[in-house]
Write the structure tokens for this entry.
Amino acid sequence: MASDASPHIDYACVLETLGWQPVHLVVAERFRDRLLGMTVRQPVTADGLPLAIAFPRCASVHTCFMRYPLDVVFIDRGGDILRVCESVVPWRLLSCAGAFAALERASLISTNSARALHVSYGGADVSSGVIP
């Protein structure tokens, strides 16, 4: 009998493959975190790292109400990258057949440029750790 439990995705490996590390990763499991996504968060956290959000059990995302473009990556249950969408402007809808999760971050944010921005973190506190 097949299990309905969510598979564990090695987000650190996916982020490394994308060249998005180091990053402050939030895994959006709660309804509120999923609903608000990046719209209420600064693209760089207080520690100077870029913010990335993982949305498990997600095959489509929107960029409504965004204040900056996003890079969006869709991954399958095994953690393989299916589709990369860069610099997606506000008010777009993206989907990917076969995707199990999506990752988002602000476009054009590299670790060095994020630290140089010195953007203060003005959003709600997030419950996640930093992936070194």
Remarks:
- The radius of gyration is 14 Å.
